[in-house]
Amino acid sequence: MSRSVLPRRLRTRLFLSYVVVVVAGAVAMLVVGTVVTRTVYEHQIRGFGLGRGQGGSNQVTESQLRTALDESLLPALLIGVAAALLTAAIVAAFVGTRLLRPIDELRSAARRMAAGDYAVKVPIPAEAELASLAEDVNELGRHLATTEQRRTQLLGEVTHELRTPITVIRGQTEGLIDGVVTPSPEVYAAIADEASRLQRLVDDLTLLSRADEGTLEVHLADLDLGAVAAAAAERLRPQFDYANVTLIVNTINPPGPLPVRGDSDRLTQVLSNLLGNALGHTPAKGTVTLSTGRDRSIAFVDVIDTGSGIPANELERVFERFYRRSDDHGATGRPGRAGRGIGLTIARSLARAQAGNVVATSAGPGNGATFRLTIPVFEALPDR
C-alpha cells in the first residue's frame, strides 16, 4: 500500500466516525422527539376535550391547537436533544476507543524506546493505516536495537585496538624507567611505531566520524580515474613485490581517459585501501588485478584478487567497522596483514562522499573476491 494513501484513508475514517456520531444522534433525536411529541400533544388535546371517544372538536379553537403544539414541542425537543447527546457520546466513546487505542500503544512504545527499551513491540491493529504505522515503529525499534548493539560493539573493538599499543608503550616506558630495558634505537623505534599505530587509528576513526556526519571535506576536480588508479597501484607495487604477489594493471574498455569529478587524494586513499585489503588476503604467488573501465555513465575500478574469497553472507558485513573476515588470521601466511578492520569502511565512506560507491562480489571461500569502485562519469574533462 502506498504511504501517500495512508493519511487520506485515516482522514476518511475520522470523517466517517464523525458522520456516524452525528447520524446516531440525529436518529435518536428523531425517534425520541417523535414519540415524546405525539405523547405530549395527545395529552394536551385530551385536556381540551378532544380525547378518544369525545366529540367536542368544535369546542377547540385554532389558538388552543397552536398552544398545545407549542407546549408539546419544547419538552420533546429537550428530551430529544438529551437522548441525542447521550447516544452521540456513547457512539463517540466506542469509535474513539477503537481509533485511539492503537495510537496510545504507539505513544507508549515510543516513550519506552526513548527510555532505551528497544525490545518493545507494538501490536499490529486491524486498521490498515495504523497497522502500517505500527510496523514502521517496530522496524524503528529493531533499527535502534541494532544501532545500540553496534555502538556497544564498536566501543569494545576500539578499546581492544587501543589496548595493544598502549600496553606496549607503557611496558617499554616502565622498563626504561626501572632500568630493566636498556635504552637503544630499537626500543625507541618500537615505542614510536606503536605511537604511530595509535595515531593512525585515531585519524581513521576521525575520518569515519566526519564522513558519517557529512562534514568530510572533499575537493572535487576534473580527474582521469584510470590515471589515478594506475598511480595508486604503482605506489603500492613494492609491497606486492615484497609479498611475492603479482600486481596486474589493465583496462577493460579501449584505452582512453575515464573523466570523473572527484578528490584525487581521497580516491587514492580508497584505491590504496582496496589494494591493501586484496594484498592482505592473497597468499604468496597469488595475483591481484586492477582493471579500469566504463559502463555507460559509470566509471569503475575493479580490484580482483585470487585470495581467500568471501562467503555470501559476509559481502556487506566486510564494510562494517572493525569487522574481520573469518580468514583474517593466517590465511595468507602474513598475520596481521588484514589491518585494523576499518579500511573497507573508510573506502566506502570516501567513495560515497564523492557520489560513488564500493561493492564486493565473490564466488565464495577460496575463489577470490572483487571490489568495485564506481564514480559517475563527468564528460567535461578538458583535453590534456
CATH architecture of the largest domain: 2-Layer Sandwich
- In quaternary terms, these chains amount to single chain
Q: C-alpha Rg, in Å? A: 39 Å
CATH class of the largest domain, named: Alpha Beta
Our count of helices gives: 7
Strand order within the widest sheet? 2-4-5-7-6
Count every beta strand, where a strand is a DSSP E run of 2 or more residues: 7
The mean pLDDT is: 77
Based on Cα principal axes, name the global outline: elongated
- The CA-CA distance between the termini, in Å, is 53 Å
CATH topology of the largest domain: Heat Shock Protein 90
Fraction of residues in helix: 55-70%
SSE sequence, one letter per element:
HHHHEHEEHEEHEE
Q: CATH superfamily membership of the largest domain, which one?
A: Histidine kinase-like ATPase, C-terminal domain
Approximate strand percentage: 5-15%
Largest sheet entry: 5 strands, mixed
Q: What structural class do helix, strand and pairing data support?
A: alpha+beta
As residue ranges, the low-confidence spans are 1-6, 52-58, 333-338
Number of spatially distinct domains: 3
Structure description:
The structure is a single chain. The protein has 7 helices and 7 strands, in the order H-H-H-H-E-H-E-E-H-E-E-H-E-E. A hairpin with a 7-residue loop joins strand 6 and strand 7. Helix 5 runs parallel beside helix 6 (264-280). The protein is elongated. The protein folds into 3 domains: 5-115, no CATH class; 137-213, Signal transduction histidine kinase, dimerisation/phosphotransfer (DHp) domain (Helix Hairpins, Orthogonal Bundle); 221-376, Histidine kinase-like ATPase, C-terminal domain (Heat Shock Protein 90). With 384 residues, the chain is α+β, with helices and mostly antiparallel strands.
